[in-house]
Structures are given as structure tokens and as C-alpha cells.
């Protein structure tokens, strides 16, 4: 589990974000490869051993492949992306901040600074970078305005994606396939409960932190 260092150095914050991006990408690759292998051995390999005189529902095999891959992905992401890790990403993103591109003609009368990597920019300030004008959106902003990966890191919504994947597993209406679905969903109901709980707790914690920061700024 990586650790978060609360520092005021813009360069160290960006280096920490780059490390966390690499770590997060590795975890997602692990989830993707493992889930695809699990679905391959569950849905496709058994079909090869079916006798030619037996009928195989190929459409259901494809659906089962998708369901198993989604189910395995949720379980693995629940293990590799626990609430502590998501909170670590949130704290790093809060220190990183983000920029929103604005139309220069709409802010021609507003003071615009030249963006420098050594400075921590406050919220609402306008800067020029790569011939474009950007507005600081976070409370603290050290991200590179033109770096799209920094913006994606700031708006990460891991828990919402997981809950959407779990919800998609509950939409089948074919009663004769409920046994397979029940076995898949049985391992996901507990994960869904914990994800929902973590999403509510983290959402309230972040909203309280944002409101407290806004009161300090005002």
C-alpha cells in the first residue's frame, strides 16, 4: 500500500501523483488480465469438451463470459482498491488540483499570470500556459494545465464505476439461467454492500472537508 506525504512542494506532489498513476495502472492491468483469464476458463474452455451431439448455447456462453469477467473484476478491484487506497488517491488529487480551459476573449480584462511549475496556485486564479488560458479549480493547484492525465487523476470516481458494474450484473431476466447468475451474484452482494457503505462514508467525509475548506477561504 503506497503512502501519502502531505507536503507543500509542487515538484514532490507531481512526482507522487506520477507514482500513484503507475501504481493504479498496474492494479487495473492486474484486474483486467485476471478477470479475462477467469472468464476464459469458466465460459469458453468447457465448450471445447462438449460432444458434437450436444447443443451449446453460444449466446449464453458469451453472456456468461461477460458476467464472469465483470464479477471477477469487481471482486479484484474490491481487494486491490480498498477505501484506504481510494482515500489516498483523493488526498493526492486534492493537493494536485486541476485547471479548466477558458475562452481568452471572456477574460481579457482579468489579470492573467504566466504559469510556473515552482508555484502553488490558489483557487480562481487565471494563468497562461501553451498559448491557452486556464482557471484554477482546486483549493491548491500544482497540476500542469495542459496535462490531460492530471485532470483525469483529479476527477477519479472509482467507487461509482464499481457500483455501476455490479448493477449491470442484476439486469438479466432469463429464469432458466438464474442458477448461474445466483452463483455469480452471491459473491457480489457482500462486495456491493461494502462498496455502497464506503461510497456513502467517503462521500460525506469529502463533502465535509470541502465545506470546511470553503469556510476557511471565505
UniProtKB/TrEMBL annotation:
Its main location: endoplasmic reticulum. It is a multi-pass membrane protein. It is found in: Endoplasmic reticulum membrane. GO terms for cellular component: endoplasmic reticulum membrane. It comes from the Eukaryota. Signal peptide: none annotated. Belongs to the TMEM39 family. This is Transmembrane protein 39B. The lineage of its organism: Eukaryota, Metazoa, Chordata, Craniata, Vertebrata. The gene is LOC107705392.
Amino acid at each position: 500500500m503506497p503512502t501519502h506525504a502531505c507536503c507543500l512542494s509542487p515538484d514532490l506532489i507531481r512526482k507522487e501523483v506520477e507514482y500513484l498513476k503507475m501504481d493504479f495502472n498496474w492494479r487495473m492491468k492486474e484486474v483486467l488480465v485476471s478477470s479475462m483469464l477467469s472468464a476464459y476458463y469458466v465460459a469458453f474452455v468447457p465448450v471445447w469438451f462438449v460432444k458434437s451431439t450436444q447443443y451449446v448455447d453460444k449466446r449464453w456462453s458469451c453472456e456468461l463470459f461477460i458476467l464472469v469477467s465483470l464479477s471477477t473484476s469487481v471482486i479484484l478491484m474490491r481487494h486491490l482498491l480498498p477505501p484506504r487506497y481510494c482515500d489516498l488517491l483523493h488526498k493526492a488529487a486534492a493537493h494536485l488540483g486541476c485547471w479548466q480551459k477558458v475562452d481568452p476573449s471572456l477574460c481579457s480584462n482579468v489579470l492573467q499570470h504566466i504559469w510556473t511549475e515552482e508555484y502553488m496556485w490558489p483557487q480562481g486564479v487565471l494563468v497562461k500556459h501553451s498559448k491557452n488560458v486556464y482557471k484554477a479549480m482546486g483549493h491548491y493547484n500544482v497540476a500542469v494545465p495542459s496535462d490531460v492525465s492530471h485532470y483525469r487523476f483529479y476527477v477519479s470516481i472509482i467507487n461509482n464505476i464499481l457500483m455501476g458494474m455490479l448493477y449491470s450484473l442484476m439486469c438479466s431476466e432469463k429464469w432458466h439461467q438464474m442458477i448461474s447468475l445466483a452463483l455469480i451474484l452471491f459473491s457480489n452482494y457482500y462486495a456491493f454492500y461494502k462498496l455502497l457503505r464506503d461510497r456513502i462514508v467517503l462521500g460525506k467525509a469529502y463533502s465535509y472537508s470541502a465545506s470546511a475548506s470553503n469556510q476557511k477561504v471565505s
